[in-house]
Design goal:
The protein is mainly beta. It has helices spanning 17-25, 27-30, 33-36, 266-273, 288-291; strands at residues 51-56, 71-73, 93-94, 101-103, 109-111, 114-115, 121-123, 125-128, 140-148, 160-168, 183-188, 196-201, 216-220, 232-239, 246-251, 254-260, 277-285, 307-317, 332-333, 338-339, 345-347, 350-353, 361-366, 371-378, 384-393, 401-407, 416-420, 425-439, 442-450, 458-466. Strands 1, 4, 5, 9, 14, 15, 16 and 18 form an 8-stranded antiparallel beta sheet that branches. It has a 7-stranded antiparallel beta sheet with strand order 2-8-17-10-11-12-13, with no helix packed on it. Strands 19, 21, 24, 26, 27 and 29 form a 6-stranded mixed beta sheet that branches. β11 (183-188) and β12 (196-201) form a beta hairpin. The longest helix is centred in the first third of the chain and has 9 residues, at 17-25.
């Protein structure tokens, strides 16, 4: 959870504003969720193809601490000999007190920031004793938690920084080798905003191949209820069954951020991923990330709002399991239907459920500068001259942009494009054709998106080519 203050601030799911408003209206009801969760609630059974390698569903007596066979407390203001203020500028002192870290007796963990009469802040930070969480060769690892962010918003939330994240095992005991050993932020939030961030940190700092201290990140609003007013499931799926290797981030099953091995050089990726990881839960107060979104702690900040964690679970698969797996390179048929969400890598887009014929997912929240890569599209020996895509848009009046096709490099000129504006809604679908320059052989296809303004302007469900 390093300083990610440079993460882009584009509010991607603007079209879900009504959902967010409705979720906010339900704050009073949702606040009672903690008390009404069933005692000894259990994590869901692993799906077919997955096995459970770690679970804590935080069952135990109210007011007791965590199981120290599974977790260790981080205390003070830094690791021994590590960067001050946990390397982020946060101001609290972490403790092992049950006033900051305790079970609620209803199957939940509470991490609660508190402020004493002198204005000093304390909070809690725990990390798994295990440091060996990584996918098997050719398999997958899934790390997930069901939790409710601190239920506080507005000026009262200034400085709040809850997180569920992971650090590379070589960091433990060293504390000087970040970000090279890798960091995977599964859930971060600041200032009580209805938004979750996911980020991978790697390489060197500042700058380097992973744009530190920002990292490679993305954000989205929580589906349905706001992040603060209800429980959501936050997950990371690390997939070694595909090439390039991929790390995907989810909220309630929606994949809104993916990082693939070919986004950085091979050495950077290997240094960040060729080892196990440990998981961390904490609520920081103040620091660089909150400062980037309106400032940190002040007299309006309210103490006592806990992050509530229902469970933490780690699963692995030896090659099956859920998740979108792109076809092997060279096996995409240009003249079939290429699902937009099956990209090999992307920047700026996310996936969501679609109401279009056939269901499944579409690729959305697309704006100027975003792109998606589809490797190994086979056009054959008879030239393709047509491109068509299934698109929808709920963009406001005057908002539009281009859907472009480029081959083999995003810096190459487009071979064709079409313009799209409001189609009547973000799930109001139509198929739009376009002419392209003649193409034969096998190519990597980039869909790139260009607009003269920053607002989201299109969703894409699928695309294909014709003669």
């Amino acid at each position: 959870m390093k300083d990610t203050s440079g993460i882009p601030t584009r509010h991607r799911p603007l079209r879900r504003a009504l959902v967010a408003v409705l979720g906010t209206m339900g704050l009073a009801v949702a606040a009672a969720t903690v008390a009404t969760l069933p005692a000894n609630a259990n994590a869901p059974t692993p799906p077919a193809g997955w096995s459970q390698v770690f679970l804590d569903d935080f069952n135990g007596a109210a007011g007791s601490g965590v199981n120290t066979a599974d977790w260790q407390y981080d205390t003070g203001t830094s690791y021994p000999g590590g960067p001050a203020n946990w390397g982020t500028g946060e101001v609290e002192t972490m403790t092992s007190s049950t006033g900051n870290v305790s079970l609620d007796g209803n199957g939940n963990l509470l991490i609660t920031p508190r402020r004493d009469a002198a204005g000093h802040w304390t909070s809690g930070r725990i990390e798994t004793t295990r440091t060996d969480f990584q996918p098997p060769a050719g398999g997958k690892l899934r790390v997930e938690a069901r939790l409710q962010m601190p239920n506080v918003t507005g000026t009262a939330a200034e400085g709040y920084w809850p997180a569920f994240w992971m650090l590379g095992a070589p960091y433990r005991g060293n504390y000087q080798n970040w970000p090279g050993v890798g960091e995977l932020d599964i859930m971060e939030n600041v200032q009580g905003l209805n938004k979750v961030w996911a980020t991978m940190h790697c390489g060197t700092s500042p700058g380097g191949p992973c744009n530190e201290t920002t990292g490679i990140g993305n954000s989205t609003a929580c589906p349905g209820t706001t992040c603060q007013s209800g429980f959501h499931t936050y997950a990371m799926e690390w997939d070694r069954s595909v090439s390039p290797e991929a790390i995907r981030f989810y909220v309630d099953g929606v994949n809104y951020h993916t990082v693939t091995a070919n986004q950085v050089d091979a050495t950077t990726w290997a240094n960040a991923t060729s080892h196990g990881f440990f998981a961390i839960l904490n609520v920081a107060m103040g620091g660089g990330f909150p400062d980037a979104f309106g400032g940190g702690l002040d007299g309006d900040t309210q103490p006592g709002h806990p992050m509530v964690v229902d469970y933490v679970q780690v699963l692995q698969s030896t090659g099956g399991g859920s998740g979108t797996t792109p076809p092997p390179s060279g096996n995409r048929d240009a003249y079939g239907t290429i699902q937009a969400e099956s990209y090999d890598s992307q920047s700026g887009v996310a996936t969501e459920s679609t109401t279009d014929t056939g269901g499944g997912q579409d690729m959305g929240w697309i704006a100027n500068g975003d792109w998606a890569l589809y490797k190994g599209v086979n056009f054959g020996s008879s030239a393709a001259t047509q491109f068509h895509a299934r698109v929808a848009s709920g963009a406001a009046s005057g908002v539009s942009g281009l859907v472009e096709v480029r081959l083999d490099s995003r810096s190459n000129a487009p071979i064709g494009s079409f313009a799209v504006a409001d189609t009547g809604g973000w799930q109001s679908w139509r198929t739009v054709p376009a002419n392209i320059a003649s193409v034969t052989g096998t190519h990597d296809v980039y869909l790139t998106f260009t607009s003269g303004q920053p607002n989201d302007f299109v969703n894409v469900n699928w695309f294909g080519f014709g003669h």
